[in-house]
Amino acid sequence: MSKIKIEPIKHPDKIINYWKKEKLVVTFIILFGLSFNIGMILGPIYQGKLIDAMVQEQPFSAITRLAVTFVLLILAVQILRYYKRFYIRRFANSTSATMRFMIYNTILHKSAKELNQEVTGDLMTKAISDVELCVEGMRKFTTEIFDTGVLMVTYLITLLIYDVKITVISIIFIPVAMILAEKLKSIIYKYSIDYRKKSSQVTDLTYDRVENAMLYRVNGLDSDMENKYKEHLSELEEKAIKANVLENSMQPIYNVIAMVGIITVIYLGGTKVIENGWTVGNFTTYITIFIAMAAKASKASKLFNSVQKSQVSWKRIKPYMEEYEDKDTCSNVNFEGTKLEVNRLSFNFSEDSENIVENLSFEGKQGEIIGITGPIACGKSSLGVALTGIYPYIGSIKIDGKELKDYSEYERSQMISYLGHKPELLSDTIYNNITLGNGKDISQVLKDICFDEDLSAMPQGENTLVGNGGIRLSGGQQARISLARALLNKNKIIILDDPFSAVDMKTEQEIIKNLKSHYQDSLIILISHRLAIFQEINQIVMMHSDKAVEYGTHNELMESSKLYKTIYNLQSMESN
């Protein structure tokens, strides 16, 4: 069986386009759907003929031919049913994959600011559960167009051919069941919205419990979090009952209403048999078809409710159905030499609040290490983020004479490596955490971060699993694995935000020595509050809490900056 090919779709926010995308599959659905549902009527007809043949004591050979024909018809109809279901399921699977792919692509192209505003649990619910419910509604709708719509029309025409009067009187109650379902759809729609929202909250809470399990445990909050989780689950259960039970509990009622007409069929049809207007076989055929039509009518009523639920999910995922964009993977960057020019840079994560970094300027070139330091909350880390170009900034950041914002996202990723405060380790091997799938040799970078001895004590070596978030490693090991990831590709600019906070002074000095020796083709920007190693770097940007900035070498700042000298002397006393 061929694999489903996942391709982008034009105007993914229009649901009709998902059927248009699968033209061939939809063609087969129509072909087999019509054939199956029209063929369904032949079963009761030949059943009636077979009964009449036996009642009339026709020759055994005639009865046998009818019986064989009846069985072959049933077999043929079921084969058609199989292929209809196969292609409808194929359509649903393909649509589900396409929707999730489009959501993934939209997330991939969101800015860092937009991603920070997303709630993880809600996003997961939309990408998984809401897509599933939406596609299920589409599948049911596609199925019932044939299994209910076409079949009911076929049934109705057949019943009218048998007897117009009995048919008109007996089907009066079928529309009543369908109208009732239509009236209930607004209530079910409201309950479904409430349920989906609460489901997102529970998903987010579950994610939080997994992500921060140890934090809650060591602080004795397990019981409190368990009670909170139980409360949310109870609310979810209550909303699920309202969203699902009303829909499902109405099914027997729809069925009873639609079947009321059977009284008319039995009375008038039985009279017609007595008066020799119908044979027993005709009566059997008619009553079988009527019961089947009434059952289909009740399912059509339920379909209205199911479609309402899928509309809720479609409304939730529709904002993520944006036109497909290719990630730019072409680079025009000149990797020979590096010059960084920062001029009057101002930066903030939010446009409506005060700048964190303001009017800051400095330059750096290949082979240098620039130190960024200052007191807590002076904007050191924000400066590091600004230099990655993933957030908008004011002023100028030029790399090799070209403005950073004018480089593509891919080009920036090839030029700049960034290590933030958190290690951000995957639940994978040490090797995969460092390479992120690029297949490079990591032996040298492990030596550069002084991790080769740690690795030798691990039986699995590079294939050692780090656990969720690096839980199986010490804080210093986590920090160095993340540092190795930032250093591996030896990018033009390497931004390291407090990379030595979890390592001892001796290891820190050894790593700095390796950086100066082995990364001379890169410009390294080292953000740190520990100043002991700043004696060995080229220049320092000293940031103040009031946004004032001082520049110079270690010796120059020891002479000119009272704050720098005070911090350095205090740290020297502590280390002694």
Mean pLDDT: 85
CATH superfamily of the largest domain: ABC transporter type 1, transmembrane domain
Under CATH at level 1, the class of the largest domain stands as Mainly Alpha
How many structural units, i.e. domains?
Answer: 2
**Largest sheet descriptor:** 6 strands, mixed
> Beta-strand percentage?
5-15%
State the total count of DSSP E strands.
10
Low-confidence stretches: none
Helix content: 55-70%
CATH architecture of the largest domain: Up-down Bundle
Report the principal-axis shape. elongated
Question: Could you walk me through the main structural features you see in this protein, from its secondary elements to its overall organization?
Answer:
This protein is α/β, with parallel strands linked by helices and 576 residues long. It folds into two domains: 16-320, ABC transporter transmembrane region fold; 339-575, 3-Layer(aba) Sandwich (Rossmann fold). Helices cover 61% and strands 9% of the residues. It contains 21 helices and ten strands. The chain has helices at residues 16-21, 23-39, 42-55, 60-108, 112-116, 120-162, 164-170, 173-211, 213-218, 222-259, 262-274, 280-317, 380-386, 409-415, 430-435, 443-448, 452-456, 475-487, 505-518, 554-560, 562-575; strands at residues 339-347, 357-365, 369-373, 394-399, 402-403, 416-419, 493-497, 523-527, 539-543, 549-552. The strands form two sheets. The protein has a six-stranded mixed β-sheet with strand order 6-7-8-3-9-10, with helices on both faces. Strands 2-1-4-5 form a four-stranded antiparallel β-sheet, with helices on one face. Helix 20 (554-560) crosses helix 21 (562-575).
